[in-house]
Structure formats: structure tokens, C-alpha cells
User: Fold this.
Amino acid sequence: MRQVKRAFRYRFYPTDEQAAELSRTFGCVRLVYNKALEERTRAWYGEQRRISYMESSAALTEWKKTGELAFLGEVSSVPLQQALRHLQTAFTSFFAKRAQYPRYKSRKRSRASAEYTRSAFTWREGELTLAKMSGPLDIRWSRPLPQGAEPSTVTVSRDAAGRWFVSLLCEDTVTEAPATGAAVGIDAGITSLVTLSTGEKIANPRHERRDRARLARAQRQLSRKAKGSANREKARRKVARVHARIADRRRDFLHKLTTRLVRENQTVVIEDLAVRNLLKNGRLARAISDASWTELRFMLEYKCAWYGRELVVIDRWFPSSKLCGACGTVAARMPLNVRVWTCECGAVHDRDVNAARNVLAAGLAAAACGDGVRPQRESSRTGQSSMKQETQRATAGTPRP
Assistant:
């Protein structure tokens, strides 16, 4: 058993008064974030000087004293301070070269949200009341909170489709899954979302393609509406609802798939795919985005950490598709249209199943040696790559189907 911080997200339906208060808060949060970012940008590019969080917080206090920005004092101060903390985190990641330069929040494109810490909300008998509000939120409790859980942070958001959500961050106790000796290698794809080393192929639901006609129709209707009109806003909401339907179904499918993989296997091995580079392929970018490999990996990472499983990530340059799992020979070429191929040794391979088995073997070898999986390089002693030798040792004696 281990203690983890876990966010529980619920939909809620605000009253008109609550919706107006939250909309004002969202606008103030966006304004403070953008204004602080503007000041930091001016200081950095003009004076090569960094502005700290304390300086931004002091500037916020001065902004509230001006007649132009006095309305900032009408909303809760906590979400405004949290916006400055988020900006500080963004700059810390930027200067550490972990992220790009922070961007301004857009009124139209950004998800509207506000974060409340413990001093800005009241949690009593299962009811949540935010600062500056007279009554609790009407939350739809789709699942219970952990027994005795007390939210430490509350994030309220409104998506592009106009739906309201509240996320409660709580301390939760996660019980490790029962130990098992099973291990699985995963090869991500498009026709089959994942192919397992067991030979099982899980079809890609293609959620975006299934709703593509509905989305195109809604987008055509949006393009015909006059800019700035009420009808255009209605049409925009309709497009956003289609996108939300696609994202919700995709997320639900990935949660069920990753939970199953983590429960059934002690070790999960995946490839380190460069999804951002793969998206540069104009012919496959839409299908790759719909597959959502990045979110699949993210879910596997935190679920393995929660439930005591081991996740092994092998190098993206490891030739899993071109490597013969029987003799270790690497094929010279392997075009994408080749789905079944025959090695010089006579072994016939399903491309995806062979790749998944090679991924598993390489991951188990790397885990046993305590080293990462690197691209193949020639060895001066044997003429074979070290990875080929290691994979051959790892797969020796493995029964072939």
C-alpha cells in the first residue's frame, strides 16, 4: 500500500450566479497570467533580468490598487496567486530546458480554469463551497471519494463545449496489485492500436474517423455563420461537443486498456516513440493523433508506479520490426506496406507480433542488465551488434508459436 495524490474529476451544474462568478474569476486569472507574462518577457528580453514569483505577487497587489484593474479585488485572490505560481513553474521548466517559452492564454482557445487551495473553499459533509459563493456546487458524484478523503486543492474548469468540471485533489491509498510473473511487450500501431507479444492484436477504435462525417458537417455549418453572431457561437459549441465526444471515448478506451495491461503483467515493455516527429508525416498525422500513443504511455507510466509494476522503455532506434526474433538477423529494408515477411533463416513473421516480441526480449534484457537499450552498433570482436547478441541471449530457448 502506498499514499498517492489522486485527482477525482466530476461534472457539476452551476447556478446562474455561480456561473457568472466563475466566469469573472476565469477572466481575471487569464488577465493576471498574461500581464505577469508580459512583464517577465519585457524584463528578460529588454534587461536580461528574471522576475521572481514574489515580485509578480507584489505587482499583483499594486495592480489591484489602480482604477483600471480594481475589479481584480472582486474575485477570490487565491486563483490569481495560483496563476502566478503556475507561470513561475512554466518559467522554471523553460530555463531548465524542459519546455518551450510560456505562451499567453487565449480567451477563445484556452481551457478556462481556476485553482483553489484549502483556504479558498469549504468542504463539509460532502458539499463543496467555493470562496465568494453563498451555496455549494451541484456536483454529480459519478464515483465516491476515498473514505475520509479531504480535498487539498480544487480546480474548476469549463471546456470548449460549455461543460463545467471540478477536480478534487486528495490523498489516496493505493494497494499494489498481486504479483505475477507475466511480462508483455507492446508494439503501437494504427491498424491495430497495440499488438502484444502474446500475439493478441487490439483493434484501433478510430474514434475520430467514426465521427468524421458528423464533425465535418458541424464545421461546415460553423463556416457559414457570420463572425461575432450568436448563431456562430451556437455552431462553435456544436463543433466542440463533437470533439469532446471523441476525446471522452478515446480516453475511456485507453483507461480500460492500460488498466488491463497493468493488472495482468508484472513487467510492461514499450518503445520510446518520437510522436512529435511522426506527426510530420502528412499522410499519417491524423491517424497517429487519433491513436493517442502519448496518452497511452502516460497512463501506463503512472499506473505501473501506483500498482507496483515495472515499465521498461526501450530506445526508439531499436529495430524491432526489422529484427528476426528467431536468428537475430536485421533486414535491410522493411517498408510500411510489408505486414508479413520471411527471414533468410526461413522463419515467417507477422510484422507487428514479431516487433512486440522483440520489444519484450530487449526490455527484459535491459532490465536484467540494468542498462538502456541502444541502437545497434557493430562489435569489433564478433561482427555482430551488442544488442543483437543480447536479444539472442534473451530469446534463447523461448518457444515459438
